[in-house]
Amino acid sequence: MRAPPDTVDSRNWHRTRVLVLNATFQVLCEAPAERAVALVAIGAAESVVDHEPRVPIRSQHAEIALPVTIRLFEYVYVPHAVTVTDSARATYAGVFRRDRHSCAYCADRAATTIDHVVPRSRGGANSWANLVACCGPCNQRKADRTPEEAGMALLWEPKVPNHIEKAQQRIWRRLAAI
Ligand SMILES: [Zn+2]
Fold this sequence. Notes:
Elements lengths: L16 E5 L5 E6 H9 L3 E6 L5 E3 L4 E3 L1 E6 L8 H7 L4 H7 L14 E4 L14 E4 L1 H7 L4 H4 L11 H15 L2
Parallel strand pairs: 1-6
Antiparallel strand pairs: 1-2, 3-6, 4-5, 7-8
Zinc ion binds next to helix 4.
C-alpha cells in the first residue's frame, strides 16, 4: 500500500483513502478513494466532509468533489465490526500486541516504548506502518532520526495487523457489491 501523497490534486487523488461511515454515522472503514467516489457517483453514499482545498473529480456525467468522509445511505451490516473501528487509527497498545512486546530494532530486549519509524517531527504518521515497539536503549540511540540515518535496520516491516486487514477486506468486498 503506497503512502498518501503530501499534496492531493486531480492527478493523484486516487492514492488517498476515505473514511466510510455507515448510515448510522458509525465508522465502518477506510476505503480507497476510487471506491468511495464511485459510491457517491452511483448515489449509494453522500459526502459528509469534502477534501480541503477542493479537489474536483470529473467522471463522464458529473463532477464530484473528493471527499475525506462519506456516509452510506443504506445500513450495511458487518459482523465483527468492532475490530474494524481499530483500523482507522493505530493504538500504542495495538502496536505492542502486534510486535509481541519485542523491540523492532534489536529483538533482544523487551519493548517498553513506541518508536515512530519516520519521526513525528518529520511528519511521520501515527499509523500501523510507522509505529513499532522499541526498547528504551534503541529508542534513545535512534532519537530523532530515520532508521537509515541512525544506521538501524527494522527487523520486520510494520504493517496493519492481519485480523484488521482481513476485516477491512471483508468490508471492501461488501462495499464493492453495492
Ligand atoms: Zn532494542
